Amino acid sequence: MEAYALRADSSTVRVDLLDLNYDGCGVATSVKFETGECLKVSVTGLGLIEAQVRWCEGGKAGLRFTSAELEATEGPTPRASERAEVAAEVRLRRLGQNNYSVRIFDLSPEGCRVETVERSRPGDQLMVKFNGIEALDSKVMWVDEFIAGVKFNHPLHPAVFDLLLSRLSTSG
Description:
Oligomer: single chain
Number of helices: 1
Helix content: under 10%
């Protein structure tokens, strides 16, 4: 996905998003960024996302999003955000076992509702894998037959969530 990085000197560099994770992304770049450099990344339709360069070499760089939205609190809380209705497939696996395709029915930055192949129990640890981002460590919060409410151990950054929703709506 095409994006632009705005540097502190107001110059703009075209970059390509290679991957997304909980709180950052990998980019392909034609310039050398400095480790620690602060950037504002622009993705069409999402505005500017503040980021810091974690590493840069061989035409690639790792960026960590630095917005205040990343300051998550621990402990039980009511649902932090509304869930977006989606109908998509993800890869799901229990730790140490094979993965399989399952359907998800809704999604928020904090979790999703997923159909499971094997009966889960609250507290089970799962890995949820969406195309284009790394697998998300998750915990089953509730179960109703073969439907489970899953909470991501690390909430998705709002920009990653928006990109994921965009991908899911264009792939289905």
